Amino acid sequence: MTSRVRPVGRLGGLATALALLAVVVGGFAPASAQAYVAISGSGSTWSFNAIDQWRKNVQQFGMRVNFSGTGSTDGRNQFKNKQVDFAVSEIPYGLTDGGVKDYPPEDGNFAYMPIVAGGTSLMYNLKIGGTRVTNLRLSGEVVTKIFTRKITMWNDAAIAADNPSLKLPARQITPVVRSDGSGSTAQFTAYMAAQHGALWDDFCRQAGRATPCGFTSNYPSLKGVIAQDKSIGVANYVRQDQSEGAITYVEYSYAKNAGFPVAKLLNAKGYYTGPTAQAVAVALLRAKINTDLTQDLTQVYTDQDPRTYPMSSYSYMILPTATSDRFNDQKGRTLSDFAYYFLCEGQQSADRLGFSPLPINLVQAGLTQVGRIPGSTKKPTDISKCNNPTFSTDGTNTLAKTAPQPAECDRKGGPAQCDANGNTSTGTGGGGGGGGTGNKNNATGGGGGSGGGGAGGANGAGESAGAGGTSDGVAAGDGAGGDGAGADGGGDGGDGSGDGSGGGGSSGGSAQAVPVSVDLPPNDGTLLIIVAAVLMVAVVAGPPLAARFMRGGR
Amino acid sequence: MTQMTSVPDALAAPEGARRRVSPSGGVDRVFRAGLRGAGFTVLGLMATVGLFLFFNGLHAISVAGFDFVSTQTWEPDSHHFGIAAVLVGTLLIASVALVVAFPLALGMALYISEYAPRWLKRPLTSMIDLMAAVPSVVYGLFGSTLLQWEGIDIPRWLSIQFHWIPFLDVPEADPNNPLAPENVYATSTFWAGLIVGFMIMPFICSVMRESFTQAPPGEREGAYALGSTRWGMIRSVVLPFGRSGMIGGTMLGLGRALGETIAVAMIISPIFLIQPHILANGANSVSALIAQKWGAASEFGLEALMAAGLALFLLTLVVNFAASAVIARSRSGQGSDA
Fold first, then answer.
1. Cα–Cα separations (whole angstroms), residue A211 to A48, A164, A190, B78, B299
2. Cβ–Cβ of A226/B152 closer than 8 Å?
3. CB B312 within 8 A of CB B91
4. In this structure, are residues A246 and A238 in contact, taking their beta carbons and an 8 Å threshold?
5. Which of A182, A257, A284, A314 has the largest count of CB atoms under 10 Å?
């Protein structure tokens, strides 16, 4: 009797499982079956947050783009070895790092395309009397001395000179750097080498490197300097309560996602500026663009505009320009459509993500490069419809043109230091935030700030559409957000996804809305970890349990 | 009839010629060739890996010379590199892992095989197998973002109470200064070793449990009959019988601990100095060095990493040969025969 029932039960179970699988797989399949071939790339963690958002956004068109943030150096090497379809890097091939030249791919079939601009920011974790400092200001020399261990305490006289209004504690500074080969490190060390070469060479010599050191992708290791893996690793290290006194260099979006303040950096004109979209846009007016679209930043560091952020740069995608064993026309089709998306519409979200949109000349140059991809769809793009906040009718960079002049309290030697209650707040950077939702954000600013990191993130994930505070609300508001809590509130508010419709003038009357549906908050790490853990337990424990259940059921 | 009488003969004279029903034919030969092939494949694979590492790392070793074993920094592009720091770091992390994992695994295995009620044995066994199935990157996440920060009081307490033991001291820490950074207790050898210990515990435990359950029931009964308590029985029967399993499992775990990569890379803050203070921040291991540097390495840097890999390979070989020598000298049950 039982022997007859059992096979039937098993078959039934099998059928159920298959049906379930079909439902699950079907549910995740792209809605529009435009038959894009999946492509994969790797590289920069500096621009990872932007690419990852764009990647999620184009999933609705059926494009599957895999991108792993393994560091710029790794991305370039993998592209050279034809292990990926595209790479993203902050620095081009052909540079000499530590006496070793990074040769470009031998066949030479590649091109650089700028994808997004941004500021390498100095994220720090510091409290005075239990209140988080959010308005720290640093000069380039002090930054160099901190990261070369010449300054080791927060109450050092040089830091005090930059921060007349702050009474900094006698706490040790923990500089946190990247342990892997990284474009962020390259940008940061290029700045230090160009501006404070003697200090930097001295440090290199101590660490056992040949000098002159120049820029490097691998930060020299020395006692007292903490090294962590990837951008997310350094940001995670700094944000821990136990890491008070730590400072790191990381793209602004990571600090923004963590709800942590970044230091204002002294520019050549004598003003302290934060890495806002506007300050970066102003700075990059001075970037010299070579014929292959790579950048020369030496003039950015010494730009005399008072609004400029000195450590600004572009990030590049390295594209194949010929088919190969790995790359064919179908992949080219996916890659070109992805590129058309982020060069045009994608740039709208750059500011919200903690980056700065590309100016019009680079978008145009980028579009030309996309046409060189084999199998490119060569989509005619009317860039006036892109709603890129930098575009104007007369060819100037609107974002840079409209960037506000820094406040008098941000001038070196000015009357007093801007504090969080002043007219500019350091926590989220100054800048034109949203109008409509600003009130709401201010009203809830205190609560959001005290809500804390982990729990706040989880809640945000649950109601991503509703949580849409504007990213810069606190900064533009009247300062009711308070200092420490305000900074947190601003960061968390930025996690929401409703900004595109509520914020500045970015969503005009055009048909391109910011795709909200696929917008997970950038702070979704916790949620993903939980989901992954549950899935893993289900996969491991599910089959034996199911087997036992079916056996017991006979 | 003849068969029946012949069997005792064969038993009585095991040294004599083997009695075969038929001469070995084609199937036997194929089977033997297959087995031999499998055996030699393993040898061949090991030799290939070793030779590959040797020939690729040779150039780097010849450039560095003897400095390769004595230098602590790792700057291959400036031709100034060595494995002194990373090799010591690897051994330290593995030792911490063993100190954590061995007692845990021993206790767990004994509890499951001897003490646990029948209904608890199977869930416990499957939980331990589940622990072994969890990928190491998950352990790394757990350790690097949660455990080492939430548990920072553990190394702090250890270092304050036992700072007179040299390797438990944390020189950078200043417990009397409330503003002293707490992160000197994180990203250390201790945390990496602890997490690696959690990872190797299930392997050690299952090998031990297997060997404990094979202790002969007759001798167990005998021990009880002589009036021993359960613990007495375990000490006189189970542990001696399981000795080779204990050593074998521990060595298996040690091998894994030496090679553990991702979890260590995620937790430690790599430092290229011999760091004898296991509770203080800064640690390193050969495999973590390779994992973090190979993607971004130059051509020569890759050769240097191969040389480091060769050193780890040799270290693991030595450990495993030592282990098999120990196991060979103490066969299972040998102790109880006496």
1. 32, 36, 14, 9, 20
2. no
3. no
4. yes
5. A182
Q: How many helices (H) and strands (E) does chain A have?
A: 21, 17
From chain A, pick out residues whose CB is under 8 angstroms from the CB of B270.
Answer: 179, 221, 227
Residues linked to residue A39 through DSSP beta bridges, in sequence order: A65
Structural contact between residues A153 and A170, judged by C-beta atoms closer than 8 angstroms: yes
Give the residue from chain A lying closest to B284, CA to CA: A227
Contact A278, B185 (CB under 8 A): no
Strand partners, A87: A42, A318
* CA A113/CA A89 separation, integer angstroms: 10
Q: In this complex, which of A171, A242, A246 lies closest to B152 when CB atoms are compared?
A: A242
In the block, residue with structure tokens 């997970």: A520
Q: Are A489 and A448 in contact (CB under 8 A)?
A: yes
- Give B138's contacts in chain A (Cβ within 8 Å): 532-533, 536
**Residues, chain A, total?**
554
For chain B, what is the total number of helices (H) and then of strands (E)? 17, 2
pLDDT digits (tens, 9 = 90+) for B297-320: 888 889 999 999 999 999 988 888
DSSP string, B121-175: HHHHHHHHHHHHHS-HHHHHHIIIIIIHHHTTHHHHHHHHHSTTSGGG--TT--T
The HSE-up count of residue A1 (CA atoms within 13 Å, CB side) is 1
Query: Is residue B196 within 8 Å of B94, Cβ to Cβ?
Result: yes
Whether residue B295 and residue A217 make contact (CB cut-off 8 A), yes or no, is no
Stretch 237-256 of chain A: residues touching chain B, C-beta under 8 Å: 237, 240-246
Minimum-distance CB partner of A208 among B78, B185, B187: B78
Give the pLDDT of residue A474.
Answer: 36
CA–CA separation, A446 and A455 (whole Å)? 15
Spatial distance between the Cα atoms of B273 and B171, rounded to a whole number of angstroms? 15
B133 interfacial to chain A (CB closer than 8 Å): yes
B226 touches chain A (CB under 8 A): no
- Report pLDDT digits (tens) over B218-252: 999 999 999 999 999 999 999 998 888 898 889 88
What lies within 8 Å, CB to CB, of B248 at 6+ separation is: B207, B211, B323, B327
Q: What is the mean pLDDT of chain B?
A: 86
| Cβ-contact A374, A322 below 8 angstroms | yes
ipTM above 0.85, yes or no: no
**Binary contact (B301, A100; C-beta < 8 A):** yes
> DSSP labels for A334-378?
HHHHHHHHHHTGGGGGHHHHT-BPPPHHHHHHHHHHHHTSTT---
Residue found under tokens 């391109």: A512
CA dist., res. A409 & res. B45, Å (int): 68
Contact with chain A for residue B28, Cβ under 8 A: no
Note the pLDDT tens digit of each residue in A302-323. Answer: 888 889 999 999 899 999 998 8
Q: What is the pLDDT of residues A68-98, one digit of tens each?
A: 888 888 899 889 888 899 999 998 888 888 7
DSSP secondary structure, A65-77, as one string: EEEEE--HHHHHH
The token duo for A199 is 């200090």
List of residues 6+ apart from A355 with CB closer than 8 A: A47, A49, A50, A116, A117, A118, A251, A252, A253, A277, A280
CB contact under 8 A, A243 and B265: no
Architecture of domain B46-331: Orthogonal Bundle (1.10)
B190 touches chain A (CB under 8 A): no
Q: Which range has the top average pLDDT, A89-103, A406-420, B167-181, B257-271?
A: B257-271
Shortest CB distance from A208 goes to which of B80, B296, B299?
B80
Distance CA B336, CA B338 (A): 5
Probe site for chain B from A218, A222, A539, A548 (most B CB atoms < 10 A): A218
